[in-house]
Design goal:
This protein is mainly alpha-helical and about 150 residues long. It has a domain at about 20-120. Helix content is about 80%, strand content about 0%. The protein is built from seven helices and no strands. The protein has helices at about 5-15, 20-50, 55-75, 75-85, 90-105, 110-120, 120-145. α3 (about 55-75) packs parallel to α5. The longest helix is centred in the N-terminal third of the chain and has 28 residues, at about 20-50. The N and C termini lie far apart (about 70 Å).
Length: about 150
């Protein structure tokens, strides 16, 4: 069977599964909003416990990372992500899942070569970029504020 590009496109369109875009958007909105609501609830909880606000601002994302890592380890995060799609990509929870998931997938290789090494498949480039960006920002800040420019 020889098809030209137009005929091929028509056949692909006819046989492709329809994506439930509206349902996916609603799921992403609701679950992403629920994650943000959880973060706000943790923030308020920590403040009500008398923890200093500067510490609460650190403790809240750390808690979200820990909860995401545990949920990934238990297989719960994947089930939520199926319903939410992009809604679980709220940066901190999505990053925690991206770090933990490859490590868990390679547990059979051992704790050091499997879990330990595969954790940095995603995290490594992000950590390197974050470190370099911090150094560049520090140099810019130094020259602008300490170097007499501002």
């Amino acid at each position: 069977m020889n098809f030209d590009v137009k005929q091929y496109g028509v056949r692909v369109k006819r046989h492709s599964a329809r994506s439930p875009v509206f349902r996916d958007c609603i799921g992403a909105f609701l679950i992403g909003g629920a994650i943000c609501l959880l973060a706000e609830g943790l923030y308020r909880l920590y403040l009500s416990l008398g923890i200093a606000e500067a510490s609460v601002r650190i403790l809240t994302p750390v808690s979200l990372i820990a909860l995401s890592a545990v949920a990934t380890g238990l297989g719960v995060f994947d089930r939520i992500a199926k319903l939410a799609g992009a809604g679980t990509l709220v940066p901190i929870t999505g990053f925690a899942n991206a770090v933990v998931a490859p490590a868990i997938d390679n547990k059979a290789e051992g704790y050091v070569p499997g879990v330990g090494a595969k954790m940095f498949v995603i995290a490594g480039p992000v950590i390197v970029y974050g470190t370099i960006a911090s150094v560049i920002w520090g140099v810019v800040y130094f020259f602008l504020h300490r170097g007499g420019i501002v």
